[in-house]
Amino acid sequence: MTRSHLWFEQARLTEGWAHKVRLTIDGGRISAITTGTMPESTDERHAIGLAGMPNLHSHAFQRVIAGLTERRGPDTDSFWSWRDQMYRLQGRIGPDELQAIAALAYMEMLEAGFTRVGEFHYLHHDQNGHAFADPAQMSAMICAAADQTGMGLTLLPVFYAHSGFGGQVPTTGQARFIHDISGFARLLEGARRHAAHLPDAVIGIAPHSLRAVTGDELTALIPLAEGAPIHIHIAEQIREVDDCVAHSGQRPVEWLLNHVTVDAQWCLVHATHMTEDETLRLARSKAVAGLCPITEANLGDGIFSAADYLSHGGRFGIGSDSNVQISMAEELRMLEYPQRLHHRARNVLAAAGGSTGERLFSGALTGGSQALGVSAGIAVGHSADIVSLNSHHPSLVAKGGADVIDSLIFATSTGAIDCVWRQGRKWVSGGRHAARDIITGDYARLMKRLLS
């Protein structure tokens, strides 16, 4: 068994900040923590240590379209016009392309301080919509990208069957996503097989949305999760809410809470448009709201009722979703700033007298870990998924405790992340991933082919 030691001047443990912290790591997990101690000669020494952040919602393949959808069409642009462009571009992505794109996204996530991703994966079939000989071929490429980069993986194969509420026939642009229940069960079996070699992979399921899955199909899908996480897109757009009301007489979150036992196993992604009653009920359910502030802003989704939700004890995590920009600090900053604009106040999401950064970081760490089926934070028995910060960064110099987190989120842009360990292995050093040159080279060649 491989043993190593890390020592930090200060580190944010699960119980709070501590000084002169020595971590013992055995087989990728933290086996001992000592505080108030000096380093030994063989210890690797750093200034500031944090737990790696979970990224609970990613569509890795969409990284390839970042920057390609920012031109206004003849009519008002929206999520739906963006989706049409995404459908056209995804038709060029095969298995090898998917691995190269996902590897770039996961590398960038690690460099940003994310150490586990929830991959909401729905690009299943070939470019003609036909199943591969191995129905989980594309899932295998996601696993390969996680292995190549060191990213912790919670793979969430997506069940997608319809183009709208009431079981509407899927469109041609959705052909690569579509399954029936039996086909999805085979996909899930294959995904579990491909992920078996990854040291701590989790396989959940993702009914795409209530517009893509009927009530009967949702009932059939839930047992397939076998107790693992269940993620679903919900109430992201006003049109989706209106269509759900027209079909069922209920709003999406309302319908789900009325028809399914939503509990800590669930992650409701976006949940942007909720009534006060839906907000209260979701908070009390112990499910996680999966918030993706950068993507939600990029797509013009709306503003999540975060202040009300947190006031009721709601759980949340953050995700990079479309991967138009990958930044842990920016996701947290973008969660708070629209609240300030909406409420015309400062430090909206902080507890009374408390740090906004600590509230955001702690909530996203705990909720994101729950949503991805793993334990949260730096503690004995947990995976050694750790981030060190550059204490020489101008915004971090001489800072300690909550001031570190506040400054990381609200006063830095680049250069704050120094090293990142995943299961005790250092993948990022000096802010740079160990395989950056290879991964970016592969991606550059891919983009030249795709855009030629």
Overview of this protein structure:
By secondary structure, this protein is α/β, with parallel strands linked by helices. The chain folds into two domains: 3-51 and 378-437, Urease, subunit C, domain 1 (Roll), CATH 2.30.40; 53-372, Alpha-Beta Barrel (TIM Barrel). It has 14 helices and 17 strands. It has helices spanning 79-90, 95-111, 137-149, 181-195, 215-221, 238-248, 252-259, 276-285, 293-298, 306-311, 328-343, 356-372, 402-410, 436-451, and strands spanning 3-13, 16-26, 29-34, 44-51, 53-58, 114-121, 152-159, 202-203, 206-207, 230-234, 266-270, 288-291, 315-318, 386-389, 417-422, 425-429, 432-433. The strands form three sheets. The chain has an eight-stranded mixed beta sheet, with helices on one face. Strands 5, 6, 7, 8 and 9 form a five-stranded parallel beta sheet that branches. β11 (266-270), α8 (276-285) and β12 (288-291) form a beta-alpha-beta unit. α3 (137-149) runs parallel beside α4. It is globular. It starts with a strand and ends with a helix. The mean pLDDT is 97.
CATH class of the largest domain: Alpha Beta
CATH superfamily of the largest domain: Metal-dependent hydrolases
Integer tally of domains: 2
Mean pLDDT: 97
Strand order of the largest sheet: 3-2-1-4-14-15-16-17
Assembly status: single chain
Helix-strand makeup class: alpha/beta
Ends apart, CA distance between termini? 49 Å
Number of helices in the DSSP assignment: 14
Major sheet summary line: 8 strands, mixed
* CATH fold-level topology of the largest domain: TIM Barrel
User: What share of residues are in beta strands?
Assistant: 15-25%
How many beta-strand segments? Answer: 17
Spans of at least 5 consecutive residues with low confidence: none
